[in-house]
Amino acid sequence: MEYRTLGGTGIKVSPLCLGTMMFGAWGNPDHDDAAAIIHRALDAGINFIDTADVYSAGESEVIVGKALASVDRSRVVLATKFGSPMGEDPNARGGSRRWIVTACEDSLRRLGTDYIDLYQIHRPDETVDVDETLGALTDLVRAGKIRSFGSSTFPAEQIVEAQWVAERRGRERFRTEQPPYSILVRGIEGHVLPVARAHGMGIVSWSPLAGGWLSGRFGVGKENTSERDKRMPARPGAGGRFDLTVEVNQRKLRIVTELAEVAAAAGLTLVELALAFVLEHPAVTAAIIGPRTKEHLEPQLRVPEIRLDPAVLDRIDEIVPPGTDVNPEDVAWQPPALRDTASRRRPLRSSRR
Predict the structure, then answer these.
(1) Which residues does the annotated region (Disordered) include (predicted)?
(2) E strands, 158-315, where?
(3) DSSP-assigned letter for residue 180
(4) What are 201-231's pLDDT values in tens digits?
(5) Which residues contact 20 (CB under 8 A, 6 or more apart)?
(6) End-to-end CA distance of the chain
(7) pLDDT tens-digit series, residues 279-306
(8) Closest Cα to residue 297, out of 46, 65, 31, 32?
């Protein structure tokens, strides 16, 4: 397998990163089976594993830690994330120094390791000065508990702000960004990818199969419910993910049908086409795959060997133009200035009597 350098870290990683969100209660609750998937991926040359504290409330990290206990830890690039709510405690989340230090210790314990190669903040935290977050992460680097750190699903302007603050205040800086990126979610091509590349950041993209739409398992006459949707806690907007009565999903189905024809003409499966497309972008270091079973993993292992012909890429651009998000909701994060109407409207004056 041809390995790629993770941004400016000098760390070499496989172009496929094994995502473990589906290990545990959210997907595959069989720890031994999940460990077998991890070992198969490692045997195939994948040396990059990504998890998060919030996945199955820490169970995913426990599974990963147990699986890695029997392998040479130094040969694995291990990434995890913090920031998403871990229970009801309002302080057990976000990017504060108080929580970062606690979350890191908790992840180290669950993973059964004394260091994390890449520690990532799961989403922007508008309530915390980014210098607070960078300062805490810098201290963890200097303490040897993490090797480097990154962001996930940050807009371009916040990537730039974090880089500026790090330089101005002598902090270590975000070395990677983990955005959603697929043929159906291409908005980051116009801003996030160029900005991250300009700052020497590695891109580790998530959901290259667009939440299942590019897996080939959904469409007319099919169940149109993923295992992820069955098991994961409900979140706003998730209910209609594959509801074909929704106009945007009808559009997705038309696009996926065309893409399946493009894949077949190129001698590829839809999954291979979708993953290879993401890996073709020069800013992308690795694409996160999230198999729940060995059967899901095996067909994806040969993707790093695939190169798409320019004519195929041109045809994809015709179907979904560069910089297009077919459904903006799939970006998975909106700034509070858009979510909260109070941030866009002056308060009404109180009437006086």
Answers:
(1) 320-353
(2) 176-178, 202-205, 284-289
(3) B
(4) 999 999 999 999 999 877 655 665 555 555 5
(5) 34, 38, 49, 50, 51, 55, 60, 63, 64, 290
(6) 77
(7) 999 999 999 999 999 999 999 999 999 9
(8) 46
Q: Is 55 a catalytic residue?
A: yes
Separation between Cα atoms, residue 336 and residue 210, nearest integer Å: 24
Rounded to two decimals, the pTM is 0.91
Domain 4-336: CATH architecture, name and number where available: Alpha-Beta Barrel (3.20)
The catalytically annotated residue of 3, 55, 115, 181 is 55
Q: How far is CA 49 from CA 25, 81, 130, 154, in A?
A: 19, 12, 26, 21
How is residue 300 annotated by DSSP? Answer: G
Question: pLDDT of 303-348, one tens digit each?
Answer: 999 999 999 999 999 999 999 999 988 887 777 777 778 878 888 7
Domain boundaries, the chain: 4-336
Instruction: Quote the tokens at residue 104.
Output: 């890191």
Question: What token pair was written down for 119?
Answer: 């520690």
Handedness of CA 34, 107, 115, 47 (dihedral sign): positive
d(CA 138, CA 148): 9
